[in-house]
Specification:
The protein has about 425 residues and is of the alpha/beta class. It has 13 helices and 22 strands. Strands 1-14-16-15 form a 4-stranded mixed β-sheet. The protein has a 4-stranded mixed β-sheet with strand order 3-4-2-13. A 4-stranded mixed β-sheet has the order 5-6-8-7. It binds shikimate-3-phosphate (S3P).
Length: about 425
């Protein structure tokens, strides 16, 4: 029985909204891991007072005008969410303030990831964002003094980072900002904004949604309770499924329906996972999961109808598919090429090194499940979710799995190895 670390996406948003708000925001269950710490570090560089007391985070927000021009670049390190949400936040917060400027940068992996998807719509709103190095990539500069005008924008791909950035920009624009998506990406930003006193109008539009936010809004400090991260829980769910006779209860796991595609797929594959407690009082649904291991798993198909609800769980699902019998087809997943590594390429390469039969497709993977994996040496490619997925495979492979560059696990799941050791002993 154990708890998983706090939700990464919600932790970022709690910190950023807390910094934009006036007053003290208290965050319980914050994820003290590489990515959210990068967000806190960026806020610190803009003179936002932040304190940690025990496991709780306190952000003493001064409102948008309290965000000072940083003396050094804001380094999002490995965190796409930090970089992209910050762009929207700063473009809006500084729209009417000349003399402000921030360089946003990241590590080598983040500098390769696409940023036009945020910059283009922000520029349409009037933001002054300039490439500092290679066009389309970090580092870039957000320059204050360009007032934003609300616009209607239709997201070409379901991405919560772009949606969140535009909503944050829209809060401090003139007029109304409308963001439409054909499929609902994780909805943490729009769920959290009302607890900071901001109204967001949400309407369903044939499978997707339309979000409307009025400009000129002032945020007031809120209290945030961060549930356990279902994306981290996924590795322990998989571990328990793969170990015969395992029985595991994971408590306090976030069960936001925009994130639960993984549970649906493992159930379809024959895995025994049940929600044994459920609570919907804090804005984000939370529950306990009971997992029973050792069932025979079979292959399945994962396509566009599910991808946005499990986009970060493909690495661990690919591992499970190797342990299953029969073919698993993952398609419509081109977005995976733009994550911390090109996950279609790196998963195929590394799972094959471990004895899997994985074929890379332009938009997905075809995995011929053989009911197990041999094991051996593999490389994380600096991608935390790959490192965690391969380590999970090691719990059930015929031979040990050793993961080169496994320290990147700390980006989202510090203490994973120690937790596994405790659960096994
Ligand atoms: C995230 C959104 C997803 C996800 C990432 C976190 C967020 O990315 O993969 O790990 O917190 O908004 P996209 O928005 O690019 O799909």
């Amino acid at each position: 029985r154990c708890r998983v670390p706090g939700d990464k996406s919600i932790s970022h948003r709690a910190a950023l909204l807390g910094a934009l708000a006036k007053g003290t925001t208290r965050v319980r269950g914050f994820l003290w891991a590489g990515d959210p710490l990068a967000t806190l570090d960026c806020l610190h560089r803009m003179a936002v007072p932040i304190a940690r007391r025990g496991t709780e985070l306190f952000i003493h927000g001064q409102g948008k005008d309290g965000l000072q021009t940083p003396g050094q670049p804001l380094d999002a390190r490995n965190s796409g969410t930090t970089a992209r949400l910050l762009m929207g936040l700063l473009a809006g917060a500084w729209g009417e303030r000349t003399g402000t400027r921030a360089i946003i940068t990241g590590d080598q992996s983040l500098q390769k990831r696409p940023m036009r998807r945020v910059v283009d719509p922000l520029r349409m709103m009037g933001a002054d964002v300039r490439w500092v190095g290679q066009e389309g990539c970090l580092p870039l500069a957000v320059i204050g003094g360009s007032p934003l005008q609300g616009r209607e924008y239709h997201l070409p791909v379901a991405t919560a980072q772009v949606k969140g950035a535009l909503l944050l920009a829209g809060l401090h624009s003139q007029g109304t900002t409308v963001v439409c998506e054909d499929q609902i990406s994780r909805d943490h930003t729009e769920r959290m904004l009302p607890s900071f006193g901001v109204a967001v109008q949400v309407s369903d539009v044939s499978g997707g949604q339309r979000l409307v936010v009025q400009g000129g809004q002032h945020l007031v400090a809120g209290d945030v309770v961060v549930p356990g991260d279902i994306s981290s829980a996924a590795f322990l769910v998989a571990a328990a499924l793969l170990v015969p006779d395992a029985e595991l209860v994971l408590t306090g796991v976030g069960l936001n329906p925009t994130r639960t595609g993984f549970l649906q797929v493992v159930q379809t594959m024959g895995g025994q996972v049940e929600v044994v407690a459920f609570d919907n009082r804090t804005g984000e649904p939370v529950g306990d999961l009971l997992i029973r291991g050792g069932q025979d798993l079979h292959g399945t198909t994962i396509d566009h109808t599910l991808i946005p609800r499990l986009v970060d769980e493909i690495p661990v699902l690919a591992v499970l598919a190797c342990f299953a019998h029969g073919e698993t087809v993952i398609r419509d997943a081109q977005e995976l090429r733009y994550k911390e590594s090109d996950r279609l390429r790196t998963l195929a390469l590394e799972l094959n090194r471990l004895g899997g039969e994985v074929a890379e497709q332009p938009d997905g993977l075809v995995i011929r499940g053989q009911g197990g994996l041999r094991g051996g040496k593999c490389d994380s490619h600096g991608d935390h979710r790959l490192a965690l997925a391969f380590a999970t495979a090691g719990l059930a492979a015929q031979e040990p799995v050793s993961v080169l560059g496994a320290e990147c696990m700390d980006v989202s799941f510090p203490g994973f190895s120690a937790l596994c050791r405790r659960l096994i002993s």
